[in-house]
Request: fold
Amino acid sequence: MTRQFPKLLSIVALTVLLAVPAFAETPEEKGFAIAARSDRSDRGFGDSTVDMKMVLHNAHGQETSRTLKTKTLEIPDEELGDKSVVVFDSPADISGTALLSHAHILDPDDQWLYLPALKRVKRISSVNKSGPFVGSEFAFEDFTALELGKYSYKYVKEEPCGDMNCDVIERTPKYEHSGYSKQMSWIDQKVHQVRKVEFYDRRGDLLKVLGLKDYQEYDGGIWRSHTFHMENKQTGKSTDLIYSNYKFKNGFDENDFEKGVLKRAR
Amino acid sequence: MGSKIEAFALSYAGAVIRFRWAFILLTLMIAFAAGSGMPRLEFANNYRIFFSDENPDLVAFEEFQNIYTKNDNIMFVVQPKTKDLFSGDVAGAIEYITEEAWQIPFATRVDSVTNFQYSWAEGDDLTVDDLIRDGPSLSKQELAHKQQVAIVEPQLLGNMIARDVETTGINVTVQYPEKELTELPEAVAKARSIVAAAQEKYPDLHIALTGISMMNNAFMEAGMKDMQTLTPLMYLFLIIVMIFTLRSFSATIATLFVIAFSAITAMGAGGYMGIQLTPISMMAPTIVLTLAIADSVHILVSMIAGMREGQDKITALKESVRINFMAISITSLTTIIGFLTLNMLDTPPFHHLGNMTAVGIGAAWFYSLTFLPAVVSFLPIKVKPGSKKSGITKFLTAYADFVIAKQKPILIGSIAVAIVLIAMIPRIEINDQWVNYFDRSIQFRVDAEFGMDELTGVYLIEYSVESGESGGISNPAYLANLSKFTDWLRNQPEVEHVNSYTDIIKRLNKNMHGDDESWYRLPQERELAAQYLLLYEMSLPFGLDLNDRVNIDKSATRISATLGNYTTREMRDFIIRTKTWLEQNTPDAMHATATGPTAMFAYVSFRNIKGMLQGNAIAIVTIAFIIMLAMRSVGIGALSLIPNAVPILMTFGVWGLISGNIGMASATVSAVALGIVVDDSVHFLSKYLRARREKGMDKAEAVTYAFETVGLALVITTIILTFGFLVMSLSTFQINEQLGMMTAVTMVIALIMDFTLLPALLLIGHNKTKQKTQEKGAQKDDKTISQAA
Reply:
């Protein structure tokens, strides 16, 4: 018996050691795993174009809207951000204004702006990713697709969201100039898409709530939400982004996302 | 009628004494029930409470705030002892405070020199970054360059940076959810803890806190401070008065309960009315205490006088209730009417003050006629029997003779003095500089003055300048006019800073032309201006939103002009001048109206005075009617208006002569004072008429009788009232200070008028030769008394 004991002990020890990663995953690991699965479900779309209508509401029911077109090129490396071109259609006096950006995960993005009335491309560098995107309640950093490396993650809980079940993940921005202290995201367990995000300001107070609706599945299992509703809980203002006309695999390459293309982006 | 009321009062007094325990229990229950409303009282902490929902200036400002970002703010005013802002250490300190300030609850944006979004160009590269990042690591040359940038930036100089470059501001925009009254104190507490921490870390900085939030907080702090200091002072004074007038410990205790119950009932009722306390409504208990004591003192003094004449306590008490019932009821009623007319003013805190005080006066009347006789009937009160005819009475008789002898000179003299003083009224200047609402024991006043002296003004006049078309703010014609308007504003002597959208557009135009200084001008095409606006939108930092300057439709922009420390008359002149300039120099759409708290306070007194005139008319007519009814004499009722209205006008004259400045209090003095000064003349006239009617005296005899019977009481009540309102004038809050001081002056003038003008008026038509019948009259007096008994 006594001689058997060390052997038994080592078996137990071995079982425990093996069991830890298998069953006692830490909340951080679980959160990361869920976020990664969601992010990767988006991987492989290649490129896309989409029309967007942006409707801005103030706290007193007044609204204004503008339309724009977005072209996006996926950069497969998870350590790099995607590249995109935004071209404004309306109102008429800003038609043709185009913004090219090369997103970076933890550094300021590279941006080039083309103003047709000035007929020049300007490179804009700004550390500020948290400012409002063209007057909307969205910051540029909310926009750029869920880039896995931008945050650290923590699994919080599971709860119903609409007619599905969601995992609630807390994510903390790694970018030092981020305007947020943390975000809570709701990721459904069925198709692993983000359904809702709460943004907390640097003080830790709830700032904004983003709801993502009208998901559609495109070829290759790519899911896209067609209605983003961002509500600022501190000012009462909100912005709707209504997407239509998604097209994937347009055969874009990096040459389509160089500053030279801006002048003829319209 | 009078005798019927007195007969009722007598049997009523008997009932109170018989069922005294029931009455005591009942009154205690009522006092506790009313007092249970007190926990509902909360301090208001928003200056908006000074404007009614219908106030057109508030309505206009609400509309403005629906369009643009609210500008509730906390401003840290920072001055280094070295007076050198652009040193590494100081820049580091500003960065530290800027960073910490984000932690202030409900802060949506922090702006400072260090995080100012500085944009510059190098060829076709445009960089937008914080002006100063990690200040302590920067070289002297770099910091000197930053200073050069900062002092030519129109958004910073004269606003965030003092023109002498010795002081800077860190502005925190705060957006309260406005769900709880605790929001503001939380934000202020955090701001103060940041100041404390920063001062420990950087002992060479002087930091002051100003801004709208700090002002709002000061309203609350001023009210609390007054409550802690003035109410105890008032109790102390009243106890001293009672000890001297009543000379009885039990009677003093009984009266103390009556006035305390009255004040509690007033405050409790305020709680049930849903009143939010302000420094103004916080004066209600002080005023109630002052007024409530009169009822009890009248009853007790008469009772003690009766006992001195040898009556037993119960008889004396009943007799006292009998002879005082009518006078106490009328004076309470007229005072209540006066306070209720405060509801005609625009400013809700005056309604609150009026309504709470009215309830308190009603309560004092009620407790003085229920609780007081019930309690006094079994309390031990000892009075030494003795002669009633004191030296004071002798003096009053002699004084009456003097008035009768010199009737004409007194009449002419008092009218002449009144006319001279009333002629001084136009010297009064109405001024509502809200920083000056607080005295220097309130930190906000000190800090705001430091900010105004060292950095920039706190009085902001706002305009929403319309273009008349959607997206029209990019129209070059609009921009040109807006720029002209901005330049014109900057040339006005009152203006310390102008925040205008044209500065932003000019800077972007320069940036987009490689920072070539000659391009610091407006773009000439609409598309370019619109695209610059888009660029500006893209460069906005976290928490700053375009609607701070531009409306959502892009059809209007906001111009904010910061004025120096000018009186509201000068501000009104500025507002009118600006309006005229816009009308003469810009298209119709651009004729913007001045708005914002400063514009609202600039007109608040005028709006109140309009309500005051209506209220006074109602009060005067109602009070005259009550006096006519009570005195059963139209002539005496009409005559009573003179000694009541004239002292108020004279007080304004005195004020014009010695001070000249008055704010919102101007509209309240007459309402508060009218109902109170009436009391003295009611007492005097009722005694005069009693002598004429019941005792068959002639005018001179009746005047002498009135002086002998109520002369002393009038002097004593005037002393009490004057002191009560002087206590109020010790308030930390200017409106209370002025209201208290002016009402106190009115009380004194009214007493003088009751001793001069009133008898002189009553004696008109009196034949001096009749004077000698006085002795006969005195004999008659004795007869009537024995008949009545």
Q: What stands out?
A: Confidence is low (pLDDT under 50) at residues 769-789 of chain B. The first helix of chain B runs from residue 2 to 18.
